[in-house]
Amino acid sequence: MELGINKYLLKQTDIDFTVDSAEQAKENVQKLRDLLDLIPTQTRMSEEQLQYQQFSTPPNIAYIVSWLANINENDVVLEPSAGIGGLAIFAKANGAKVIVNELSDRRLALLKNLQFDEYFNENAEQINNILGDKIKPTVVIMNPPFSATAGRMGDKRSTKFAKAHIEQALKILQPGGRLVAIVGQGMSSDSSTFRDWWSNIEKEYNVRANVGVYSKDQSGRIKHTDEYKKYGTTYGIQIIVIDKTGPTTSDVITANEPSLENIIDLLEGIRNDIGQRGTVQLGEAEQKTSKPVSEKGTGKSESGDMGGIVSICYRRRGKRFIGSGRQWNIAGRNWKRYWTECWILRARKRTSG
Q: pLDDT band for position 225 (50/70/90)?
């Protein structure tokens, strides 16, 4: 059923998953809820699903994670525990290169029906140790097991086990990149279990938000969310946003918002503040080659001197250029502004050279 929903969402044209507007994003969340209302609630889980905590991400929550990551066609997106692709489909809908990893052979076979760019079959607790020299994601979106270890610790359960997933994902994430994750409610910033861990993470990475998505029962203790109910659980969750841009220097947004729409309003500013993602790692590679951007398969620049201009702009911005001749379009953005900046950069290089 989940695979069918994911395939449908990739093919449908009624919902635009590329919108930037918070109001449109909230409308999309409601449309995805309406879709979920049409399906039965999952009440039975296989032994494998229970052992490895294979709770797929409902599309309403998965969409918000993707929206907060602010993914575009220039990104390389990794989903380390991809399941059946509930998060990854939204990265694909935004035109990114999508790499998925899934430990379960059964779920990996289902995942291959969605035609992502690369597939891996590794333990996400070791994703950087295994794949760190093979893939270079600029965005990581993830929903790791909240307390299971893929059999490594038998049937033992602890929310601490999720730390390895986050740590490895942050290590494989490229400088300037963003991680958005769904984790269990136990990983809130004020959790006594995770307080020291969060303090250490903040010393190395820029933690932007750690927001709860749950309601409380009358006792005020038992936390739950109906946003996940259709996919077999009501366990409360946290949505965390971390940028790999140096240590945390500003206050982390910590709140509890049972409404997904309120989370969009709360985190809209962070969503839009991604800086020049991708320029750090691309700049280093470009300095080694300093070749102009060329037509696909030709090895030649688009048009004489213009190739030099684009080469500099590519190093500066980390953007992919499309078009021909003088009609440049930079990933659908304001090409005139970029063209001006590129021309200035080229002029400065001539003056200093």
A: low
Distance CA 303, CA 294 (A): 9
Kindly tell me the burial class for residue 162, based on how many C-beta atoms sit within 10 Å of its own C-beta (0-12, 13-18, 19 or more): buried
The mean pLDDT value of the chain amounts to 75
**Does the global pTM surpass 0.85?**
no
Q: Which residue segments constitute the domains of the chain, with CATH numbers given?
A: 2-272 (3.40.50.150), 279-352 (no CATH)
CA 44 – CA 65 distance, rounded (Å): 26
Q: How many CB atoms lie within 10 A of CB 291?
A: 12
CB proximity list for 13: less than 8 A, separation 6 or greater: none
Partners of residue 243 on adjacent β-strands? 178, 206
Q: What is the pLDDT of residues 140-171, one digit of tens each?
A: 999 998 443 444 444 544 567 789 999 999 99
Residue found under tokens 């250490």: 200
Of 9-13, 248-252, 263-267, 343-347, the range with the lowest mean pLDDT is 343-347
The CA-based dihedral angle spanning residues 56, 61, 62, 67, taken in that order and rounded to the nearest 10 degrees: -170
Instruction: Give first-to-last CA distance, the chain, whole Å.
Output: 61
Instruction: Give the separation between CA 61 and CA 319, rounded to whole angstroms.
Output: 29
Render 317-344 in DSSP notation, one character per residue: H----EEETTEEESTTS-HHHHHHHHHH
Q: Are 248 and 202 in contact (CB under 8 A)?
A: yes
User: Quick one: tokens of 185?
Assistant: 């409610």
